[in-house]
Amino acid sequence: MRKERKLLGGGPGDIPIVHTLYDIYAEWNEIVEKFPKVQRYALGERVSLHTLTVLELVLTASANTKDQEKLTALQQASAKLDLIKLLVRLSKDCKCIGNNQYLHIESRLIETGKMLGGWIKRTQEDFRKTEEDKEAR
């Protein structure tokens, strides 16, 4: 499915979640072209913009060395991802996208959510350990 490519020449863009979000955005833009005009700008564009926001937050988190700031960016990305899932489901219910398109995009969003959830959990553990180490001193 996904073509192997380097997005940012070996930098933070080469983490798997960035590739997945990149692909979701590209696939969604192809789908949105077929939306009814009113929904294309009301609903379709919002999904596109929120996907870009999640991508930005993930890149911000990957570049951040402070666990608390990284965790904040990841939690914001997770909340936006939940909103994207809701808007995609609304797109299906409004008959802007077909069931197969919905299932495909939804599975990619679930995959992204799992990656994001794992990253959040690991960052929380790292933050907790750092705080415990500070208290032990």
Automatic annotation (TrEMBL):
Species in which this protein is naturally found: Candidatus Uhrbacteria bacterium CG10_big_fil_rev_8_21_14_0_10_50_16
Signal sequence region: none
UniProt name for this protein: bAvd-like domain-containing protein
All copies of domain bAvd-like, residue ranges: 22-122
One Pfam family recorded for the sequence: bAvd
